[in-house]
Specification:
The complex is a heterodimer of chains A (150) and B (382). Chain A has 150 residues and is an alpha/beta fold. Chain A is 44% helix and 21% strand. Chain A is built from five helices and five strands. Helix content of chain B is 72%, strand content 1%. The chains are: A alpha/beta (150), B mainly alpha (382). Chain A: This is Universal stress protein family protein.
Chain lengths: 150, 382
């Protein structure tokens, strides 16, 4: 089966390397375009929403600190993607911001996505505990073809 | 960078839908559900919801917040309600500042000295225990530092304050927060039940939960769930003095744990990463504590009339009105806080942080009860 556009979720960790390698092979075989995506998790303010007493500076300092770590992770993901796609003409990498589960689910249900390739542990490296169930949600709800790696 | 600090008045229009939901919820609970519970009969039992389960408007409010998020809205607050629910934090801070009207300076000194003794002892014991267990379980050094402060002082607030100072990874912080919240929520619901069954006084109960419950939001909720009255000597008036002692110690604990963290790091160049105590005090000291102390000052000066201390003249009309307003404000605020508890996050907490959190949290919770029981004759009410 060939796909016109393959989307792969990349987070710069070992967990996403196998999925990325597979997506690159698939894209080369199908002569398809490959899109790598990283999602900056914007749900941290909500995650610590229960904390009513932190000083404004402490709260904002924490959110900025988390954001910085995620931006570094995004750079690592981009490097990982660029290394894997060296020599490929139809490849691009994009960074999104939002709830990783929602953004990835939107990708997995978009008409423009031929197939979504991802590791089961993707985004856990910089994520909240609920992201452990991201793969299970994709399996349940994705309307486009999906390839999941352990 | 994500910036969530908007002015109150700029935020107000977008907050109206969420605020309305919170207000309507609390009005329905207080005007209809509570009176109904007080008269209802189930399986021949008189008032089982209030007498056996000790449900009151505080616990019902939190439960409604939880239900909104986790059941009715399928795990996520709709955008339209988010800003209103965010304002619940401001409401609780306002309530705590107003709580200053329960105390005079002499009462603060009296309660504060008891609180310093208990809080100080437990903070030191907890930090030592976490550092030891962290080493035993082979936990990452920054994760151990975050857990040490979070489990010993103010739960999530302490985790938020400590994480950047010890370079904790986001995923580590997330698991620490989920563990603390999960434990806090469990103790919030069981503590009023245990307190009533053991026949604890407000003073004993307030001292116990003020010392033993990990997270500040849950200390407030558990105190009001035990006794929803807001007056000198009630559970909330005791527990919040304990809580304020914990809050004040955040910058100092962050400083101490940061020193421990960097002392054990192989990387020698920590310049620019370590902060002075002065910087930490400016960044991390919660301003509402100053508001609370200003309120205590005015109360001590008699600005609001008599506070209604046991054996003294009755509370003035101003003080009575303030207390009524506080009850409503805390009620609103806790519906909002319930809306920030996400079971998806708590369900997925696990691993070593959970194991360590449960061991330390349970030890602290039980030991605080034992210590309060042992020193009950030395605890003096206001």
């Amino acid at each position: 089966m060939s796909y016109s556009n393959i989307v792969v979720a990349v987070d710069g960790s070992d967990a996403s390397q196998e999925a990325l390698d597979h997506a690159v092979d698939l894209a080369r075989q199908s002569n398809a375009s490959l899109t790598g995506i990283f999602i900056i998790d914007t749900q941290w303010a909500d995650f610590i929403g229960n904390d009513w007493q932190s000083a404004k500076g402490a709260r904002q300092g924490f959110l900025d600190y988390i954001r910085k770590e995620q931006e570094e992770q995004a750079e690592a993901a981009q490097s990982q993607f660029e290394r894997a796609t060296q020599g490929m003409e139809q490849s691009c990498f994009s960074v999104h911001a939002g709830d990783p589960t929602e953004v990835l689910l939107a990708q997995a249900s978009s008409e423009n996505t031929g197939i979504l390739v991802t590791g089961r542990r993707v985004f856990q490296v910089s994520g909240r505990p609920s992201l452990k169930s991201l793969a299970a949600i994709l399996e349940r709800k994705a309307s486009r073809p999906l390839l999941l790696f352990p | 960078m994500h910036n969530e600090s908007h002015g109150f008045f700029r935020q107000l229009p977008s907050a109206l839908p969420g605020l309305s939901l919170i207000i309507v919820t609390m009005v329905v609970i207080r005007l209809w559900v509570e009176p109904w519970m007080a008269h209802t009969k189930v399986f021949g039992m008189e008032k089982p919801l209030t007498d056996a389960f000790h449900l009151n408007y505080i616990l019902l409010g939190i439960l409604c917040g939880l239900l909104y998020r986790n059941v009715i809205f399928g795990g996520k607050m709709p955008e339209i309600f988010v800003d209103g629910f965010k304002l619940s934090r401001l409401m609780i801070k306002t309530g705590i500042i107003m709580l200053g009207s329960l105390y005079t300076f002499s009462a603060i000194v009296q309660l504060g000295s008891m609180a310093i003794f208990l809080i100080g002892g437990f903070v030191i014991m907890t930090i030592i225990m976490v550092l030891w267990l962290g080493k035993l379980f082979g936990l990452d050094r920054s994760m151990t530092a975050v857990l040490a402060n979070a489990l010993s002082i103010c739960g999530v607030s302490a985790a938020v304050a400590t994480s950047p100072a010890v370079e904790a990874k986001a995923s580590h912080v997330a698991y620490a927060i989920a563990t603390i919240l999960g434990f806090g929520i469990l103790t919030m619901f069981i503590s009023p039940f245990i307190g009533h069954e053991l026949g604890l006084t407000d003073l004993q109960y307030g001292a116990w939960i003020g010392t033993g419950i990990l997270n500040s939001g849950q200390v407030l909720a558990a105190a009001l769930a035990f006794n929803p009255n807001v007056a000198p000597g009630t559970a909330v008036s005791i527990a919040e003095i304990w809580n304020i002692m914990r809050v004040i110690s955040i910058p100092f604990a962050v400083f101490a744990v940061t020193i421990w963290y960097w002392a054990g790091k192989e990387e020698s160049d920590s310049s620019g990463k370590k902060k002075t105590l002065g910087t930490l005090l400016v960044e991390k000291f919660p301003v509402f504590v100053i508001g609370f102390m200003v309120m205590v000052f005015f109360t001590s000066m008699g600005a609001f009339g008599d506070v209604g201390i046991k054996g003294g003249p009755p509370a003035s009309e101003t003080i009575k009105t303030l207390r009524l307003v506080m009850q409503w404000i805390f009620g609103f605020g806790l519906v909002g806080l319930g809306g920030f508890i996400d079971f998806k996050e708590l369900r997925q907490a696990g691993g070593t942080p959970l194991k360590l959190g449960l061991i330390v949290g349970t030890t602290k919770y039980v030991l605080a009860l034992v210590v309060v029981y042992l020193i009950k004759d030395y605890l003096v009410s206001i």
